[in-house]
Amino acid sequence: MELTRLTKVTTALKANALELAILTGHLLLYPSGIVSERPEAAPDPDAAPGTRPGTGRPVVLLHGFVDNRSVFVLLRRSLVRHGRHPVESFNYSPLTCDLRAAAELLGRHVEEVCTRTGHHEVDIVGHSLGGLIARYYVQRLGGDARVRTLVMLGTPHSGTTAVPWAGAHPLVRQMRPGSDVLQELAEPAQGCRTRCVSFWSDRDQVMIPVETARLDHPDLRVHNVQVSGIGHLALPVHPAVAAGICEALDIDEPDTTPEAEPGAASVA
Length: 268
Prior knowledge:
six-stranded parallel beta sheet
């Protein structure tokens, strides 16, 4: 019993230390992500086959609450090394007060990416609130016609009770259990074509309870991936999670069952 308790304490201390280190590094990088990145140029239609960098659908990265694209520096590198191109980050305004409005802006950005790259579909990776915004776009705004795979990292699908002092902010209220937005997302979504993959961690200090980052919806094709031993900020940074994301995005078969998908066990 004492050994088990000691192991839990040690694991918690390691997770907290990693979160602190990541937070420190992210604060240093944060200013570099305030300005939206330049869109990548459209591919050259006259380029010889095999000369264009990377393959597959464009990947759109969507940050969380009061964050920006700098949170994805390491994940972006992993995706590019894995052969995904283009990889683009979408910054929504820190003054945004409505998740629905952010989802509409995301939809416009996705249309622009598809037009510019010549691809009919994209993949989206959303961290925390970003995953919820992308899910609203997919479920409520017809985004399933454009999004092949939606990967969500530490997203409060059932609402989180963390940081009670921040409840005055409209976006935080929309992430609370029972909010009108979460009630909308709980409604039927029959025929939704997007495949959803949700990573959740047993050490996520922002998701309270931690299981709220599991997505359970009868009409959605969902695969939940449990991550052990890392916190909320580590999800878009940890190399094992990045490997799991790359593996999830590589699956092209639309009828893949959850049992056949990667990441059924802990990845960290």
